[in-house]
Design goal:
The chain is an alpha/beta fold. Helices cover 60% and strands 11% of the residues. It is built from 23 helices and 10 strands. The strands form 2 sheets. The chain has a 5-stranded parallel sheet with strand order 2-1-3-4-5, sandwiched between helices. A 5-stranded mixed sheet has the order 7-8-6-9-10, sandwiched between helices.
Length: 563
């Protein structure tokens, strides 16, 4: 749908063209009218308009001045100049300022329609121009580093969709990895900064600096991309830059001690170990930052990255890992501390999903994910530690909602008290049911709140239409009054009332017109203007289409009925 504005200082021209274009059902147009350039600018200030048909010779601000203002506000808006003067100077000036077309009033409505059709075609063509595609490609190139890190972070969270589509996503995002082969993981922790007054932005710059320093050392032999796992901890993904031609896919993926792939990895791991110390020293000297590194000397499949990252976190959270400037590489599980039950990447992803679903009112999806989480520990008799970890990871998800939704009911304190105590429940099943009941109560409160706000918007629409029926009651204006997009408003209104918003407005206009025809002696043009029609003929057609008779016939019919 395109928005068309007619601008002329002669009301008969504006009203006639608005009426005319409103009848052109084959053109996807929403039509507006303005009787001066100043009135047009007020519309343009708050509403996007696609095509403007404007007179050139208007008092005050003329059409050429208006066109310059339009281009500044809406550069893609097409302007069609309408004038009674066939003067070459006007044409030159119009085209100099990107006027789309130039139509003489004497040429009639057909010429104006052709000019509007041409403007629509040009708008459609511009959306397909190569420059727009090139611009999108440039923006994608700028976004690629961030998108690469987001994809690798989803790998760490064991997102099944990302893992399933790794080969094509590596190609799309130009990641220098082969999804069929194994990767090496290194975890980097920032232990301290040179200054305690660094902002979040400053620390982001320093993270980029660490990446650049590491790339200088590593890029000679390995492909290397970092992904921030959490604040202060980053995981580096590495693969050999080149693989021997004679190496098959199976030997590359084995990692079992034989094949050419193992020889490649032995060299790569030795190279990376040697570089880590240099990176650590350089970052301290140049950036004033102390770093710790953990690396298991064994490559892994991509779907194991989340578990390896959790293993690294365990190393950095116990014993020597609690110190600073650790540089620890090891060969197997026996050399790592046992931190007890930990969240896997998949478990963390489920927690994030639960949080979003609770906030967005996705009740059915929430219960499906919640059941998966709670069932993980339900069937394990020796899972007390795991149950504690799951339970107290869920508490922060529910606590803000409990405080917000139940404080007014006077039960927030008791609800919070029980929420924060796993020992208040006699069984895991009882605790599971308790969280499920709280979630249902939260969803119910949220739904009531949403419905109340939706009905409030509908009531606001009704009040505005009732009070301004003779003014602008277009969807654009109502959207401006309510602060909502016109498409959203139309969907919301239909959902609540079962009626199209435009149909409701038409029904209100008809009811007001019928009342005025029955109870007043106002002339037709006065009634037409009072209910917001820019032209009397348009009002006649609207009334006859709705009732089957003309306004005059309706008035006469009710006069006879009163005798």
């Amino acid at each position: 749908m395109y928005r068309l504005l007619i601008v002329d200082d002669e009301p008969i021209i504006v009203n006639g063209l608005v009426d005319f274009f409103a009848q052109q059902e084959e053109l996807p147009l929403e039509v507006y009218g303005a009787y001066s350039a100043e009135e047009a600018l007020q519309l343009l200030l708050h509403n996007r308009l696609d095509i403007v048909v404007t007179d050139i010779g208007m008092p005050g601000m003329d059409g050429l001045q208006l066109q310059k203002r339009i281009v500044r506000q809406w550069p893609r808006c097409k302007v069609i100049f309408l004038t009674g003067f066939d003067e070459f100077a006007y044409v030159q000036e119009a085209m100099r300022h990107q006027g789309v077309d130039y139509v003489l009033k004497a040429e009639g409505d057909g010429a104006i329609v052709r000019a509007v059709e041409k403007a629509i075609e040009q708008t459609n063509a511009e959306m397909k121009k190569e420059e727009l595609v090139a611009q999108a490609e440039r923006q994608l190139r700028l976004a690629i580093p961030s998108l690469q890190k987001e994809l690798l972070k989803s790998v760490l969270l064991e997102d099944p969709v990302s893992l399933r589509r790794l080969p094509e996503q590596f190609r799309e995002l130009q990641l220098p990895f082969d999804a069929r082969r194994q990767a090496l993981l290194v975890m980097v922790r920032v232990d301290s900064y040179k200054s305690s007054s660094y902002s979040h932005y400053d620390r982001g710059l320093l993270a980029s600096a660490i990446h650049n320093i590491a790339a200088e050392y590593l890029q000679a032999s390995v492909s290397f991309v970092p992904a921030e796992l959490e604040y202060g901890r980053t995981v580096w993904f590495l693969q050999p830059s080149a693989w021997p031609e004679e190496e098959g896919d199976s030997s590359a993926a084995d990692g079992d001690g034989d094949g050419v792939g193992d020889d490649v990895w032995t060299a790569v791991i030795s190279f990376v170990k040697g570089c880590l110390e240099s990176i650590q020293l350089t970052c301290k000297e140049l950036l004033g930052m102390e770093l710790s590194f953990v690396m298991r000397e064994q490559p892994l499949a991509w779907n194991e990255a989340g578990k390896r990252a959790e293993e690294y976190k365990g190393v950095l959270s116990h014993g020597l890992g609690m110190g600073t400037e650790l540089l620890y590489t090891y060969r197997g599980h026996g050399q790592t501390p046992d931190p007890g039950p930990v969240h896997t990447g998949q478990w963390k992803l489920k927690l994030e999903l639960l949080k979003r679903q609770l906030e967005n009112g996705q009740q059915e999806a929430f219960h499906a994910v919640y059941a998966e989480i709670m069932n993980e520990a339900a069937g394990r008799g020796d899972a007390q530690a795991l149950r504690q970890e799951i339970y107290y990871s869920l508490v922060p998800l529910f606590l803000p909602h409990v405080n917000r939704h139940f404080a007014d009911a006077g039960c927030s304190e008791s609800a919070v008290s029980k929420l924060t105590r796993l020992d208040a429940f006699h069984s895991w099943e009882e605790a599971t049911a308790y969280f499920r009941d709280i979630a249902d109560a939260i969803f119910a409160r949220s739904m009531v709140g949403m419905e109340q706000e939706e009905h409030a918007v509908v009531q606001k629409i009704h009040r505005y239409v009732h009070d301004h029926l003779g003014d602008d009651v277009s969807l654009v204006r109502i959207g401006d009054i309510t602060g909502h997009n016109t498409k959203y408003l139309s969907r919301l209104y239909k959902k609540i009332t079962g009626e199209d918003l435009s149909a409701y407005i038409g029904r209100m206009k008809l009811a007001r017109a019928q009342t005025m025809l029955k109870e007043t002696e106002l002339k037709m043009y006065e009634i037409s203007a009072a209910i917001g029609f820019l032209s009397e003929p348009y009002f006649y057609r609207f009334f006859r289409k709705a009732t089957g008779i003309t306004p005059l016939e309706y008035r006469e019919l009710h006069k006879v009925a009163r005798r």
